[in-house]
């Protein structure tokens, strides 16, 4: 994770004794999934990671920093969810709750709650404005897909 956002996470895929292919994220132990084939396990990795990260937000826990780069396959977190996670982490760093940020932005608390929900659509400009309010700036990167 760079500067308070989760951009990517490395994972491992191993076959268990019963033949299922298990996906594990060393830095996010809550993110687990498995598939009947190795390809299916890889295909499920992104959803498992996003579900676990969304759970960490709901439990009001920190988003872990990646510990090892290039140690295996990588899930790249979609830009919208990455921005939401960056906002969440910036709020934690500033000691702000949803109500306080909503007040700063001239919004109601429910709007901030929706901004932090990884499953809800939020305009990227809305997240950019909220991050600016916390002294953060968004930047994007385009690179060749793996």
Describe this structure in words.
The chain is α+β, with helices and mostly antiparallel strands. The chain folds into two domains: 8-76, 2-Layer Sandwich (Double Stranded RNA Binding Domain); 79-133, 434 Repressor (Amino-terminal Domain) (Orthogonal Bundle). The chain contains five helices and five strands. The strands form two sheets. It has a three-stranded antiparallel beta sheet with strand order 2-3-4. It has a two-stranded antiparallel ribbon with strand order 1-5. A hairpin with a 7-residue loop joins β3 (21-24) and β4 (32-35). α2 (79-94) runs parallel beside α5.
List keywords for this structure.
2 domains, Double Stranded RNA Binding Domain, 5 helices, alpha+beta, 434 Repressor (Amino-terminal Domain), three-stranded antiparallel beta sheet, 146 residues
How much of the polypeptide forms β-strand, as a percent range?
5-15%
**What is the CA-CA span between the terminal residues?**
19 Å
Question: What summary fits the major beta sheet?
Answer: 3 strands, antiparallel
Gyration radius, to the nearest Å?
A: 16 Å
Total count of strands = 5
Order of helices and strands: EEEEHEHHHH
Low-pLDDT stretches are: none
CATH level-3 fold name of the largest domain: Double Stranded RNA Binding Domain
| Main sheet: strand order | 2-3-4
Count of discrete alpha- or pi-helical segments spanning 4 or more residues = 5
Helix-strand category = alpha+beta
Please write the CATH class name of the largest domain: Alpha Beta
The CATH architecture category of the largest domain equals 2-Layer Sandwich
Shape, principal axes of CA atoms:
elongated
């Amino acid at each position: 994770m760079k500067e308070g956002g989760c951009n990517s996470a490395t994972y491992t895929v191993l076959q268990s004794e019963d033949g299922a292919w298990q996906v594990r994220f060393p830095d996010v132990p809550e993110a687990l999934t498995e598939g009947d084939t190795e390809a299916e396990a890889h295909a499920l990795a992104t959803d498992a990671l996003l579900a676990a990260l969304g759970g960490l937000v709901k439990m009001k826990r920190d988003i872990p920093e990646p510990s090892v780069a290039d140690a295996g396959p990588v899930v790249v977190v979609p830009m919208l969810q990455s921005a939401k996670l960056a906002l969440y982490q910036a709020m934690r760093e500033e000691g702000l709750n949803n109500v306080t940020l909503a007040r700063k932005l001239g919004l109601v608390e429910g709007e901030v709650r929706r901004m932090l929900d990884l499953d809800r659509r939020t305009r990227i400009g809305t997240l950019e404005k909220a991050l600016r309010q916390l002294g953060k700036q968004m930047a994007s990167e385009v690179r060749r897909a793996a």
